[in-house]
Amino acid sequence: MKYEAVIGLEVHAELLTESKIFCSCTTKFGGEPNTHVCPVCLGLPGTLPVLNKKVVEYAVRAGLALNCTIANFSKMDRKNYFYPDLPKAYQISQYDLPLCSNGYVEIEVDGKVKKIGIKRIHIEEDAGKLLHENTDGSLVDYNRAGVPLIEIVSEPDMTTPEEAYQYLTKLKNILEYTEVSDCKMQEGSLRVDTNVSVRPVGSTELGTKIELKNLNSFRAVQKALEYEIKRQIKVLEEGGTIVQETRRWNESKGITEPMRTKEEAHDYRYFPEPDLVPIIVTDEWKEEIRKSLPEMPHHKRERFIAEYGLPEYDAKIITSSKKMADFFEKCVLEYDSPKTVSNWLMGEFSRLMNETGKEIDEVPVTPQMLVKLLKLIDNGVISGSIAKTVFEEMFGTGKEPEVIVEEKGLKQIANENELREIIKKVIVENPKSVEDYKNGKEKAMGFLVGQVMKATKGKANPQLTNQILKEELSK
Amino acid sequence: MAISRSEVEHVAKLARLKFSQEEIEEFTVQLSKIIDYVNKLNELDTENVEPTAHIVPIHNVFREDEVKPSMDRDKILMNAPYKENGCFKVPKIIE
Fold first, then answer.
1. Collapsing DSSP states into helix, strand and coil, what is residue A425?
2. B5-43, superfamily in CATH?
3. What is the mean pLDDT of residues A372-381?
4. 20 to 30 Å CA-CA from B34: which of A17, A362, A454, B53?
5. Which of A40, A95, A138, A144 to mutate to test the interface with B (most CBs of B within 10 A)?
6. What are residue A148's phi and psi, to 5 degrees?
7. Within a domain: residue A340?
8. Would you call A277 and B87 a contact, using CB atoms and an 8 Å cutoff?
9. Sheet of A271-272, strands arranged across
10. Residue A271 lies in a domain
């Protein structure tokens, strides 16, 4: 029998507000434990929460960017469970009347566009952090408790791990563009849970779903889904049944394994939050927020093609991250060859970012530094191939390109007399190739140029080398 | 009975309350009576009545997104029965 998977994703994104959702404590990441807390986010008796207006605006902004319907009337609810990371023993969230619903994201898989539905987006407060150190108990840091989150719940519209990966990439891209979240998975500002079940192809009934946790990267989501789908199919093919449970992705072993859950019953006894009043988003307010939406990826892509003459392929890659698009535009402001900038961003820059797993804003190279490097090439100070070496050094150390060129003695040899001496020596040392060239073998020329580059450690000016070499050989 | 014994046990478990067998029996009877009483409300026709989200008829009470100083950590931890390294200490949670 052939099986297909049904995948749904739940994404939690921390909102980029300055203060927490219900109190004025800072949302800054890190900080000494329990230094960003107050009686409100600790849920001390007698305190009352007051909703941060920006949380509503950011959630609506995300909802609009994700094609959602914005609820005119919305309210907060209490989700009850006991766990030490939750100081009040309930989380203030939204249950039956979320702020946004019925949106979608378009993804591209194998050249085809597919719409992935977004069921809902609601606002809620984050919980604290449990530290399991070498003590006889667990330690709790409530700095994160009360940081605003949006939870984005997809429809179970994905059928392959690749589609899940594409959905997450697109979602992150849009959230970054809307500037409501910085989406840093390593700091926990973007977190992903996924539900997956399998069923025979053609069946309309859903199989028993498994929830997967501990997914620390989009690749981990993809790998965990690949493993889990195979596991479920194997169980079914051997005549077994899938038991509904939460499983944890074990990255080092590359497997999913059963996990103990917080509340055995999944019985959260939601009820309306009596300490907070309903939220009404009028059409005027909604339109005001819509106007504050920055340029979205597909608009930016079209503009980059029209304004900078970038090929569609380049424009798509450069705008796939807002940070890269911003970096590009800053470079182009000072350097009038957009295609050269895009080549560098898609080439060396992306290669080193992939190798180091860094995002563009975590790299010490600034747009000004890249522009300086490009100008060094244009002015003949360094060759294009040496520039790659210089760039690698810039990427690793954050040093200015001209400093690196100076320190490492990488300046191009463009002095005709100096270069002629080196070339003469190469000609004397390679009589066979010289003879081949004179007998009409064009390839021998390339070999000789290579020898000159070798002798100068790549610093010879290529045009000048060619010119002098031809002169000397025709003597 | 409007509520079963096992439901009472379930609710008690969710609330982390521990009762003797006699107490469970007693509460099952008492809670059933309360639910029967409240069930009277079900006799009303609420077809065209909006569900109440809040008893006070106001909405959109917000604060601006401004950071104010948090509370001093020594004060925060003052009433905590167990603390360590600036954290609240709780019984070991095994993930």
1. helix
2. Glu-tRNAGln amidotransferase C subunit, N-terminal domain (1.10.20.60)
3. 90
4. B53
5. A138
6. -70, 140
7. yes
8. no
9. A90-93, A77-80, A271-272
10. yes
| ipTM confidence | 0.91
* Domain shared by A420 and A369, yes or no: no
Q: Is B65 close to A19, i.e. CB distance below 8 A? A: yes
Domain boundary among A388, A408, A428: A408
Q: Hey, are the CB atoms on A84 and B89 less than 8 Å from each other?
A: no
Bridging pattern class, strands A100-109 and A69-70: antiparallel
pLDDT at A266 over 80: no
Are residues A400 and A448 located together in one domain of the fold?
no
Nearest-CA distance from B75 to chain A in Å? Answer: 10
- DSSP assignment string, A217-233: SHHHHHHHHHHHHHHHH
Residues A140 and A223 in one domain: yes
User: Which two tokens mark A92?
Assistant: 């203030």
Q: Are residues A214 and A242 in the same domain?
A: yes
CB–CB contact B86 A32 (8 Å): yes
State the CATH number of the domain containing residue A456.
Answer: 1.10.10.410
Domain end among A285, A309, A334 = A285
Residue A343 sits in the same domain as residue A370? yes
Residues A37 and A154 in one domain: yes
Contact A341/A317 with Cβ under 8 angstroms? no
Same domain, A202 and A67: yes
Nearest to A412 by CA among A452, A451, A361, A441: A452
Residue A229 and residue A262 in one domain: yes
Helix H, strand E, coil C: the string for A82-94 is: CCCCCCCCEEEEC
Residue A260: band (very low, low, confident or very high) from pLDDT cuts 50, 70, 90: low
A290 domain-assigned? no
Could you give the number of structural domains in chain A? 3
Whose tokens are 């009337």? That residue is A73
- B interface test, pick of A19, A22, A29, A34 with most B CB neighbours within 10 Å: A34
Q: Per the CB < 8 Å rule, is B70 touching A84?
A: no
Query: Residues of A with CB below 8 A from B68's CB?
Result: 19, 24-25
Residues in chain B within 8 Å Cβ distance of A32: 73, 86
Q: Are A278 and B91 inside 8 Å of each other by CB?
A: no
Domain ranges of chain B: 5-43
Are A274 and B54 an interchain contact pair (Cβ–Cβ within 8 Å)?
Answer: yes
Listed in sequence order, the residues at least 6 apart from A335 whose beta carbon sits closer than 8 Å to its beta carbon are: A341, A371, A374, A375
Q: What is the longest distance spanned by two Cα atoms in chain A?
A: 97
pLDDT in tens, A216-254: 999 999 999 999 999 999 999 999 999 888 999 999 999
pLDDT for the residue A401: 93
Residue in chain B nearest A259 by alpha carbon: B95
For range A304-319, the mean pLDDT: 94
Optimal mutation site among B7, B87, B95, interface A, most CBs of chain A within 10 A: B87
What are the tens digits of pLDDT across the range A128-181? 999 877 678 899 999 999 999 999 999 999 999 999 999 999 999 999 999 999
Q: State whether B91 and A140 contact (CB < 8 Å).
A: no
Structure tokens given for A388: 């790659």
**Both tokens assigned to B61:** 């009470």
Q: Which of B59, B64, B85 sits opposite A53 (nearest CB)?
A: B64
